[in-house]
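Quick one: structure tokens for this chain, please?
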Amino acid sequence: MALSPKEKKELQQRFEKQLLPDLDMSFELNGEVYKFNFDKNESGDYIDSFTQAVWGGYQDAEEWEKYGKHQETELPE
């Protein structure tokens, strides 16, 4: 079950508000420098692949929380 368009828009606004203080920060991994960029294309997806990937994880976490999609795992004793 996916989020409704209204829920997605509200969640995206929360996502951007939460990351706004980090907008000027950059992250380095394996020599690549990543930085958040909230520019979007016509369909509402982030143009920047790093920001889109972080948004995807944020959205998945919200859906898991809302719809209980997380997988329960029992560890062996």
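Residues 5-59 form one domain.
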